[in-house]
Specification:
By secondary structure, the protein is mainly β. It is about 10% helix and about 35% strand. It has 1 helix and 14 strands, in the order H-E-E-E-E-E-E-E-E-E-E-E-E-E-E. Strands 1, 2, 3, 5, 9 and 13 form a 6-stranded antiparallel sheet that branches. Strands 8-6-10 form a 3-stranded antiparallel sheet, with no helix packed on it. It has a 3-stranded antiparallel sheet with strand order 7-12-11, with no helix packed on it.
Length: about 170
């Protein structure tokens, strides 16, 4: 029995070690983990040992400033980091996404994106029903940044937010 409990704990540690996402104390810096999830399970649990990423961002600034690094992705694949607003009725394809930045995974499956983007507040209260913003890393082929639209759906190839974030644009 003890061996079974130990095995279960060790299987969960890699996922838990990558989260939770949050702002510490009075810091103006936030940390968001993105993880590979299992869409075949209705609870969408994180995949133990799967691809993952971490975004460090300013919680208050004129523009959304962040650094994002991810690991264990498909080498040579193009990825785009997006803000994904949820809407009533879940319309598809989804318009009003914001493309935050793109990169091609290197030979080791790593992506690095560092940007400053004029997003306004996140979440956008006019286009998002959530109390926080969803940040996803998706296949670049599944979106059109010029049209601010996601039309492809390959969730086993994406990284999803471990938690929602808040960003206050001081440009308002």
């Amino acid at each position: 029995m003890l061996a079974l409990v130990l095995c279960l704990v060790l299987a969960v540690v890699p996922v838990v070690a990558k989260g939770p996402s949050r702002v510490a104390g009075n810091s103006k810096m936030g940390h968001l983990y993105l993880v590979e999830k299992n869409p075949a399970d209705p609870n969408w649990p994180a995949v133990a040992g799967g691809a993952w990423g971490k975004m460090t961002y300013r919680t208050t600034a004129p523009k959304f400033r962040f650094v994002f690094n991810s690991h264990a992705l498909v080498p040579g694949q193009d990825y785009t980091l997006i803000y994904y607003p949820d809407k009533e009725g879940n319309p598809w394809p989804r318009a009003d996404i914001i493309c935050l930045g793109s990169d091609r995974a290197d030979e080791e499956g790593n992506v690095h994106i560092k940007k400053v983007v004029d997003t306004g507040d996140l979440p956008n209260p006019e286009t998002d029903i959530n109390e926080g913003a969803k940040i996803w890393l998706v296949l670049s082929d599944d979106i059109d940044c010029d049209e601010e639209m996601i039309f492809g759906w390959n969730p086993t190839e994406y990284l999803f937010e471990y938690d929602l974030i808040m960003f206050d644009s001081t440009l308002d």
